[in-house]
Amino acid sequence: MKLSEYAKHLLLSSDLEDKLLPPPSVWQEETDVRPLRIEKPNRADNLKFSDVKTKIPRLEHLNQTTAKGLTLHHFANHELMAIELFAWAILAFPESPLRVKLGFIKTIQEEQTHLRLYLKRMNDFGISFGDIPLNYIFWKQVPKLGSVEEFTAVLSLSFEGANLDYSQIYAKAFAHFEDWETAEIMIRIFEDEVKHVKRGMRVFQNGKPSSMEDWDYYKTLIHFPFTPRRAKGYIFLPETRKLSGMSDEFIRLLEEYEDEYSGRVNLKTLERFQFGADVWRKSDLPLPHQAE
Ligand SMILES: [Fe+2]
Ligand SMILES: [Fe+2]
């Protein structure tokens, strides 16, 4: 199979199982390198893009089974979009170096694992994929992504970057309610997302003119109304960005960045959970069941 055939398979098959097909380990050489920008993926009816707004359950409701399932449904949707969008980038930017495209394939494979983890765990909570409408927030950025560097700035540095905060926040929230199994899933995914942002950082650094600062280059790659705010979670955990290879200066400027949408989260809720700035790793999960 060629990279482009695999990418098309993930985007154009409407069967969810097809989108979860792991990549082959050997690839045939690519012969056609014309860019192809697929406007939207094929999906089964219950997974199609929807403009119906569904709010993610509040953190303080994560002691309830349905709220837990619906939260994971939101995350599963992000994973599905990530699988499709990395496939999209392979087709849209075929002139990218092979190692970049193989990096995208590795990311796809890990996003497929994440999606399976969420599907299984939400089923434990009585929720099936497609039970609530699926938004397409990541896909909305696609028309504006003109280069592999712009793709990386939005997908990896911003969305996957924000997910570093979110996976930590939710690991801690699930642990707060003693759901260690889900907390562990969140940390497992966190560890992979660190690698994804790192891969993104390599594409970013390769594309950056040597005379330019990281932050200035990042800002040339994202386009209003998309702002650096999208690169952060409800709370910002600088240590996670350090793990993924961002420079101290970039991290500082990202932390300081604010716009009119900043600060809309209910800080009281966050205070209740007493989230510290500490970062949970797979190796030092503070989960009591591991000691059993
Ligand atoms: Fe993921
Ligand atoms: Fe990812």
Automatic annotation (TrEMBL):
Spell out the SUPFAM superfamilies in the cross-references: Ferritin-like (SSF47240)
Please give the superkingdom of this protein's source.
Answer: Bacteria
- What Pfam families does this protein map onto? DUF455
Descriptive protein name: DUF455 family protein
| Organism whose genome encodes this protein | Leptospira idonii
